[in-house]
Amino acid sequence: MLPPASAFLPEITFQTSRSSGPGGQNVNKVESRVELRWHLQDSQVLTEAQKGLILEKVANQLTAEGLLLITAQDDRSQLRNKEIALARFHELLLKSLRRPKPRKATKPSKGAVRKRLESKKKDGEKKANRRRVE
């Protein structure tokens, strides 16, 4: 079970910068882009097993130092972008810790096999009837 996003707040650092894209004068003046930084291995909230699972799933998203970076520049407000980044972070952790349901091998029913073979035979006869008669 994953703790709420607020439990990770002491471990998370935020860095702000000027956002790119449209926005007029607001873009040039306000640092509304938010970058969430979290060090996976230093986390006190997660167990070692949980860290291992997350590391498997997000290994390609970590920096060389082991930091997970999530950026948000969707909104004009810095506070709203922080909320968006935290929501993305929590969703990423939830998705990483979710174990896939194991697949159970199944066989087609006898009726389905018979139906398929009859259909193949019918199609083969149809194509055989298209040939020239000698």
Automatic annotation (TrEMBL):
<feature type="region of interest" description="Disordered">
    <location>
        <begin position="97"/>
        <end position="134"/>
    </location>
</feature>
<feature type="compositionally biased region" description="Basic and acidic residues">
    <location>
        <begin position="120"/>
        <end position="134"/>
    </location>
</feature>
<dbReference type="GO" id="GO:0043022">
    <property type="term" value="F:ribosome binding"/>
</dbReference>
<feature type="compositionally biased region" description="Basic residues">
    <location>
        <begin position="97"/>
        <end position="119"/>
    </location>
</feature>
<dbReference type="GO" id="GO:0003747">
    <property type="term" value="F:translation release factor activity"/>
</dbReference>
<dbReference type="InterPro" id="IPR000352">
    <property type="entry name" value="Pep_chain_release_fac_I"/>
</dbReference>
<dbReference type="GO" id="GO:0072344">
    <property type="term" value="P:rescue of stalled ribosome"/>
</dbReference>
<dbReference type="GO" id="GO:0004045">
    <property type="term" value="F:peptidyl-tRNA hydrolase activity"/>
</dbReference>
<dbReference type="Pfam" id="PF00472">
    <property type="entry name" value="RF-1"/>
</dbReference>
<protein>
    <submittedName>
        <fullName>Peptide chain release factor 1</fullName>
    </submittedName>
</protein>
<feature type="domain" description="Prokaryotic-type class I peptide chain release factors">
    <location>
        <begin position="11"/>
        <end position="130"/>
    </location>
</feature>
